[in-house]
Inverse folding.
């Protein structure tokens, strides 16, 4: 795993330099949704020696993440939720409260409704905290033609940002988007580039500090278009032994 991490770090840095950017300005998130607790601990050990800043992880399942994090403990990790929340899940108060307790940031806020559910959860859970908590969130915008990607429509993004900004307990810190998967013949490369370009343009227009875009198969294109955070999973964990959290 260590060599895979180092290879990705170098590719990220090289992509940044090619775009005339400082490699330190591009943050690397490890999508650990398919990694067990032992694998995450191994990753944390590698990152503590080789990486800069906190280890940023991305998970898509609240309860599964909680179970893994129970075993991982405090390892200087910044935990991001990147999963798509259904309407039913946002109405599940226990689930939403748990998400607010487990994660440090939610990147997949694709509607005002979801943002309100997070705001309400922060208000409920915050009653037991000594300090007021603000949950950083990313507004997920779907710049692709694929509805399965999730996110608010580009035409509605600015209005959604305004409404979410009025809520207590949440703060929009960036834009997140998922581009179409590259075709084998590369015929949609212009479409992928367009998605990233528009996401960065929107982020800049709203004065946001971060743009989360780019995954294993397209992160170099995303960095060239201004991505501040790339989400890498398969390139690191695909051949790792995945299992249950240790008991």
């Amino acid at each position: 795993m260590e060599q895979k991490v180092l290879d990705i770090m170098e590719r990220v840095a090289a992509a940044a330099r090619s775009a005339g950017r400082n490699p330190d300005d591009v943050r690397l998130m490890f999508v650990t949704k398919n990694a067990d607790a032992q694998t995450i601990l191994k990753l944390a050990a590698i990152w503590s020696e080789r990486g800069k800043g906190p280890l940023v992880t991305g998970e898509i399942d609240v309860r599964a993440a909680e179970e893994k994090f129970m075993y991982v403990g405090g390892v200087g990790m910044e935990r991001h939720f990147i999963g798509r929340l259904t309407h039913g899940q946002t109405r599940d108060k226990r689930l939403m409260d748990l998400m607010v307790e487990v994660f440090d940031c939610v990147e997949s806020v694709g509607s005002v409704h979801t943002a309100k559910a997070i705001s309400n959860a922060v208000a409920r859970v915050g009653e037991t905290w000594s300090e007021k908590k603000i949950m950083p969130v990313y507004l997920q915008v779907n710049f692709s033609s694929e509805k399965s990607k999730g996110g608010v429509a580009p035409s509605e993004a600015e209005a959604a940002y305004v409404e979410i900004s009025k809520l207590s307990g949440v703060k929009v810190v960036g834009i997140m988007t998922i581009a179409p998967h590259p075709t084998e013949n590369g015929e949609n490369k212009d479409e992928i580039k367009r998605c990233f370009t528009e996401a960065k343009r929107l982020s800049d227009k709203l004065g946001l500090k971060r743009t989360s875009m780019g995954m294993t198969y397209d992160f170099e294109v995303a960095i060239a278009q201004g991505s501040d955070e790339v989400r890498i999973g398969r390139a690191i964990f695909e051949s790792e032994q995945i299992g249950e959290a240790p008991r």
Q: What stands out?
A: Residues 2-237 form a domain with the TIM Barrel fold (CATH 3.20.20.10). The longest strand covers residues 170-176.
